[in-house]
Amino acid sequence: MQFATERLGRELGTRAQVVDIARLPQLGLMRSREAAGREEAAAFAAVEAADLLVIGSPVYKGSYSGLFKHFIDFVDYGGLVGKPVALLATGGSERHALVIEHQLRPLFAFFQAQPLGTGLFLTEREWSGTALIGEPAEQRFERLVHEAVSAVRHDAHSLAHPLAIAAE
C-alpha cells in the first residue's frame, strides 16, 4: 500500500496518508461508531474527507479481511458517494484474483463510490512486500495510477488528497 500511495502522492503533487487499520487500537472492540477512540475517529474522518481512496486487503478464503469489513461497516454511508477508489488485493495464488470483482467492487458500489476500472491483484510471485516483481504487474500498476490521477484531476472539486486504507 505504501508504494501505491507514495506514487500517487508524487503524481498528484500532494502528501498521501495511509490508514493501517491493523494499528487502530480500539477497532476490534468497537460495536458502534460512537465507541470509536481518537485514532479510529480520525481514521474515519480521513477516509470520508479523502479525494481518492486506495484500498488494499489480503485475501482470506476468497474475500477481504474481516478487520477491513469491520472498519468499513463504520464508514458513513454518504461519505464515499462519487469518490474514486483504487482497488488492490494480495493473495497466495491467482485463484483469489476475482476478489476485486466479486467482493471489493460491489462493496464500494453499495457506497455509491466510483471504483476505477483497473483493479490490482498481486500474488506472492508479483509482490516482494516492498516492490512489484515483473512487467505484467508493473503494467497493471501503471494503468491503475493513470486512471487514479485522471479521476482526481477531472474532478473540479478535488483537492488531490489521496488516502490509502491498509488491511493486514
What does this entry look like structurally?
The chain has 168 residues and is of the alpha/beta class. It is built from 5 helices and 6 strands, in the order H-E-H-E-H-E-H-E-E-H-E. Strands 1, 2, 3, 4, 5 and 6 form a 6-stranded parallel sheet that branches. 33% of the residues are buried.
Which features would summarize this protein structure in a list?
single chain; 168 residues; alpha/beta; 6-stranded parallel beta sheet; 5 helices; 37% helix; globular
Topology:
Layout: H1 2-12, E1 17-20, H2 38-49, E2 52-58, H3 66-73, E3 84-91, H4 99-110, E4 114-115, E5 120-123, H5 135-153, E6 162-166
Parallel strand pairs: 1-6, 2-3, 2-6, 3-4, 3-5
Helix pairs in contact: 1-5
Tally of helical runs: 5
The run of helices and strands is HEHEHEHEEHE
Number of strands: 6
Class from secondary-structure proportions: alpha/beta
Question: Any idea what the radius of gyration is?
Answer: 15 Å
**Uncertain spans:** none
What percentage of residues falls in helices of 4 or more residues? 25-40%
Q: What sort of overall outline do the alpha carbons produce when their principal axes are compared?
A: globular
- Major sheet, described briefly? 6 strands, parallel
Q: Strand percentage, roughly?
A: 15-25%
Rounded mean pLDDT score: 89
Distance between the termini: 10 Å
